[in-house]
Amino acid sequence: MSSLSLRELYEGFRDPRTIRALVKKIEIEADKLGRDIHIMEVCGGHTHSIVKHGLHQLMPQNIHFIHGPGCPVCVLPKERIDHAYRLAMQSDVILVTLGDMIKVPGSKGSLQDARAQGADVRYVYSPLDTLRIAKENPDKKVIFFAIGFETTTPMTAALVGHVINEKIDNIFFHINHITVPEPMKVLLDAKRSKIDAFIGPSHVSVISGAKIYKVFPEAYHTPVVVCGFEPVDILEGILMLLKQRNDNRCEVEIEYTRSVTPEGNLVAQKLIDTFFEKRNHFRWRGIGDIAQSALQLREEFAYLDAEKIYSDLLPNHQIDDHKQCICGEILMGAANPCECKLFGNACTPSSPLGSCMVSSEGACAAYYRYGNMR
Ligand code: SF4
User: Fold this and answer.
1) DSSP state of 211
2) Cβ of 343 below 6 Å from ligand 1
3) What is the C-alpha separation between 170 and 115, in angstroms, rounded?
4) Lateral strand order in the sheet of 120-124
5) CB 116: neighbour CB atoms within 10 A?
6) Distance 321 CA to ligand 1 centre (A)
7) C-beta 337 within 6 A of ligand 1
8) Closest Cα to atom 1, ligand 1: which residue?
9) What is the per-residue pLDDT across 71-114, written as a single tens digit (0 to 9) for each?
10) Which residue in 141, 139, 156 sits closest to 97, CA to CA?
11) Contact status, residue 177 vs residue 295, Cβ threshold 8 Å
């Protein structure tokens, strides 16, 4: 056992001398590379950390970050936020979701607005808290509005398991769980794509394992390094990517070895597979329709699926973002948030007009909050 406290341990991952030494090594490798390299950090947590700690300002001129779509709240299209709003407005419904969802505006308003109009909306830290809410309110239909990547899906699956095994008849689900590799492929396939390498998401990889990225070196000749969220983790990951390029290697590597393995959490994967299957299509805000990029309850559990039960109430027409929003360009690496005319004036975290400003992990929100853009 390490004798370091958690605080001391994490101070080590932010140690200025270690950071300076890593930046020096990155400069040497970047110089050796001798050309521009565009690195996409897929996960919004990495975007947040890069901008918060000013890591983009420490990079040599030929290293460019592209901020990816890995914020599940940001990429949820407005029409699905409207679903949550409409469900919440039913007098016999308690809508339960995770905290990030409460302030996100749809075309009718946010769940916070619904609550102001009398809707019963509750947010929980763990989906399993829904069991208690349902027990305390036997006359209400409790709908869990599930969001998140592979990271949070096992918790929703565990809740589904409880509902089935304990024959609970007043909990239902609106599933918005999405998966990471499919949008990465879409972004690489895009004509305007500039992506040369990926910093792979860490929490997703704890569950799914780094194996899910094998396709990128094999079919796209694009390396992936799965990194932790601390500055030293991210700099180490950038160094590993540069070394791969300079050594003529193209692989999936794990920097975040303290939590991620190639295989991931097999128990969690089995739990997900028991209750969920892939949806044919799912629209991502800022990117568009992506095949096989989201999950739904398996057919045998359709009786728990609020999207099917309330299908008459939940319109599926597309609701677009503001015409001047350039989130699509930002996600492709073709623009950065400051190039948007709406950034910081018409579009702010309290009144977001596009996906990247919606949650603190979105690129525009991170730039707005920390203001230390290049
Ligand atoms: S600042 Fe707002 S409108 Fe502009 S790209 Fe970002 S999210 Fe879209």
Assistant:
1) G
2) yes
3) 21
4) 120-124, 93-98, 141-148, 171-177
5) 11
6) 9
7) yes
8) 343
9) 888 889 889 999 999 999 999 999 999 877 888 888 888 899 99
10) 156
11) yes
Atom of ligand 1 nearest to the CA of 352: 2
Nearest Cα residue to atom 3 of ligand 1: 325
Taking the centre of ligand 1 as the mean of its atom positions, its distance from the CA of residue 313, in whole angstroms, is 30
From the CB of 325, is ligand 1 less than 6 Å away? yes
Residue 255 CA, ligand 1 centroid: distance in Å: 32
For the chain, the straight-line distance linking the first and the last C-alpha, in angstroms and rounded, comes to 41
d(CA 17, CA 28): 17
- Encoded tokens for 10: 């994490």
Report the atom number in ligand 1 closest to the C-alpha of 322: 3
Check: pTM over 0.85? Answer yes or no.
Answer: yes
Which atom belonging to ligand 1 lies closest to the Cα atom of 347?
2
Quick one: which H or E segment has residue 252?
strand 252-254
Give domain 78-179+265-309's CATH number out of 3.40.50.11740, 3.20.20.370, 3.30.70.141, 3.90.850.10: 3.40.50.11740
Q: Which amino acid is at 304?
A: L
Q: Residue type at 353?
A: L
- Is any ligand 1 atom within 6 A of the Cβ of residue 340? yes
358 Cβ below 6 A of ligand 1: no
Tell me the C-alpha distance between 271 and 254, whole Å: 24
Amino acid present at 127? P
pLDDT in tens, 180-221: 999 999 999 987 788 999 999 999 999 999 999 999 999 999
Per the structure block, which two tokens stand in for 249?
């290697």
- Are the C-beta atoms of 202 and 45 separated by less than 8 Å? yes
Is the CB–ligand 1 distance for residue 326 below 6 Å?
A: yes
Residues 13, 230: contact at Cβ < 8 Å? yes
Give the torsion sign (CA, 114, 151, 19, 242).
Answer: negative
